[in-house]
Amino acid sequence: MQQKQKNMSRRQFLNSAVVATAAGAAAAVAIAPEAQAKIAAPPLPELLTPAYRPRRQDAPVSLLDDIQSRGTLRVGMTLQFEPQMYRDESGEPAGYDVELLKLMAADLGTGVELDIQDQEFDGLIPALLAGKVDLISVGLVGRPGGRLETMWFSTPYVPYQQVVIVPADSTVADVAELNASGKKITALTGSTAAGLAARIFPEAELVELQQQPALLEVASGRADGGIVEAYLAVPFVEENPTAKILNPEEPFSLEFGSYALPRGDLDWLMWVNGWLRYRKGQGVLQALYDQIIGPSLGDTPVYKEIPAY
């Protein structure tokens, strides 16, 4: 009888803990109805704040220490990809990545401010390698053959479904038809889309440009197709009826974007990954994604889930 009472008490305790956790998570993901309203994420527990973080006396200095000491989180971004990251009508940084980084800066400690360094896409990696920024936030994919050997990558924070856009009057019915001599394919310079185009269209001519010119080459008919993320393609073809998404019901490539960090700084990598898991667990990333990026995808059947790992 005593054993049964103990078991019942244990079950009651566990059930109450689950209810409390669920209630906390629900509170964390509540968002205001206005577009791009800030997520009301709860503060970090006191024991997770920098003042309580123990360090060995012989531990090497980490960027984590530098950031908290200098009071700024320096982030390399390209503010040209609305709604993920861009400048609003007043010229201020806005978008999914920006809201996440504001929260990250706040969680790094009292007084830490976000310093966004807006650069062209192809200048981001050199800036990180030169120590000019603490991380890159542009949804880089940590692919082998260059990036993985150069930088460390966090766990993913944003999903990317790639699509192909073609001129509206194009007779191409399948992606495979673009892999032919004489065909011209555009993609953002140095991007995952460019790497994908090189792999699946080896017979075609790949033209790497900045994002908007790459899209306009297709809309003007000067290129036969272009690879781009769905969240950029959907609003572009709505505003430019001379272009269309090829087989929008069949997005053909799924990738996950991560933060890029300097190699060798384990403390900084572990903090960023721990922070991502903490905020993912509360549902904050998914709520922000659904609110800010979700509407730009319309009814396009793409993957919209923030990975839990």
Considering the chains and any ligands shown, give keywords for the structure:
ten-stranded mixed β-sheet; two-stranded antiparallel ribbon; D-Maltodextrin-Binding Protein, domain 2; alpha/beta; 36% helix; 2 domains; 309 residues
- CATH class category label of the largest domain: Alpha Beta
Summed over residues and divided by their number, the pLDDT gives a mean of 84
Per DSSP, the total helix count is 10
CATH architectural type of the largest domain? 3-Layer(aba) Sandwich
In CATH, what is the homologous superfamily of the largest domain?
Periplasmic binding protein-like II
Structural class: alpha/beta
Order of helices and strands: HHEEEHEHEHEEEHEHEHEEHH
* Whole-number tally of structural domains: 2
The N- and C-terminal alpha carbons lie at a distance of 43 Å
Uncertain runs are 1-38
Shape: globular
Total beta strand runs:
12
Q: What integer value in Å does the Rg equal?
A: 22 Å
Characterize the largest beta sheet: strand count, sense, and whether it forms a barrel. Answer: 10 strands, mixed
Helix content: 25-40%
Beta percentage is: 15-25%
